[in-house]
Amino acid sequence: MQKLVDLRSDTVTKPSPEMRKAMVEAEVGDDVFGEDPTVNALQKKAAELLAKEASIFVSSGTMANQLAIRAQTHHGDEIIADKNCHNFKFESGGVAALSGVLVHTIEGERGILKVEQIKEAIRPKDHHFAITRLISLENTHNQGGGSIYPLEEIIRIRELADEEGLAMHLDGARLFNASVASGIAVKEYARYFDSVSFCLSKGLGCPVGSLVVGSAELIDKVHRYRKMYGGGMRQVGIIAAAGIYALDHNIPRLKEDHGNAKELSGALHRIKGVAINPEEVETNIVIFDVAGTGMDAQSVTDRLRERGVLVLPRSPTRVRAVTHLDVDVEDMGRAIEAIHQILS
Ligand code: TLP
User: Fold this and answer.
1) Prediction pTM value
2) In what order do the strands lie in the sheet with 195-199?
3) How far apart are CA 191 and CA 185, in angstroms?
């Protein structure tokens, strides 16, 4: 049977033989006692990479975001975020259920909020209002089509946050994609945030795992909530080893995924009725609108599946395709051919 070209997400990658070898050979201990040497090494490495005091290994990007927000807010506070960001829209209402906060949503352009919009959303210091406590940004922005947050805008937002005494969280699930595409080091992005979460199980190809990075004081608080949420893990060096392997080997190659996404967006752009601007495809996420073809997103998805290509419908007319380390140039060629057969 022909191999499926799975473009539903960069979460679908399988650990390579080299990564599995690192996992098998990992030294382990009980991480709830802080005694897993591989987890400790991964946490040290992550903190160093992002030039922060400390980091903590958690099971998922969702848990990382939820813990970071919980540790920096009080019930009844308000946080400011883009209306399509992951921690507001795709984490099962977790911020309301677990942190008890309101989310003041604003619509960014491809997920990118401007400092003026955020300024307007900060509540007056008056007892009628919730207390604005934190600004949450996402880089790259998933629903924005893998858009990269301009560093100058982040700096302006940080200045505003400092003036207003607000904390800043970065959902950096795909921060390494942003860094490889922009040439800006992850620590330069991280500098302007109190907390950063990033994922090992997306573009970096691990089976599981995310980290929250920040000051030692903040990470200590996150540690407590991780325990409370049932996120304490034991001989978890076995998966932390995959994370170390990924950080050592899988970052520079992200540019191949970006190249494949560009190629795909160029091919889609040439099809009549498909709406996409290839210039806006900056990293590994390609979102295109099929309304002009007379088909809807679900039927395009179904027909592509019949041809061995998997994508995700994101709205009645929008489809998402994500490139990653388990799809090569040949696979992309097959995907593009299948798209042509259906849409041209
Ligand atoms: N995104 C996944 C799923 O939600 C579908 C995907 O396929 O894109 N932040 C961002 C920006 C994300 O894109 C995701 C996952 C998360 C956080 C949550 O990570 P996990 O799935 O590990 O909880």
Assistant:
1) 0.97
2) 54-58, 210-214, 195-199, 167-172, 132-138, 78-82, 102-106
3) 10
Tokens 């160093």 correspond to 48
Q: Across the chain, what does the average pLDDT equal?
A: 97
The reply to whether ligand 1 has any atom less than 6 angstroms from the CB of 11 is yes
| 216-239 pLDDT per residue, tens | 999 999 999 999 999 999 999 999
Output the CA 77–ligand 1 centroid distance in Å. 24
- Going by alpha carbons, the residue nearest to atom 7 of ligand 1 is 9
60 lines ligand 1 (CB under 6 A): yes
**Which ligand 1 atom is nearest residue 10's CA?**
7
Helix (H) or strand (E) holding 210: strand 210-214
Q: Phi first, then psi: what are they for 51, rounded to 5°?
A: 55, 45
Ligand 1 nearest-atom number relative to CA 285:
8
pLDDT recorded at residue 210: 98
- 136 Cβ closer than 6 Å to some ligand 1 atom: no
Burial of 131 (0-12, 13-18, 19+ CB in 10 A): middle
Q: Atom 8 of ligand 1 has which residue's CA nearest to it?
A: 9
Give yes or no for residue 170 CB within 6 A of ligand 1: no
Look-up of token digits 């950063």 = 196
% of the chain with per-residue pLDDT over 70: 100
CA of 170 to the centre of ligand 1 (A): 13
Domains, the chain, ordered by start: 17-249 (3.40.640.10), 253-343 (3.90.1150.10)
For residues 252-262, give the mean pLDDT.
98
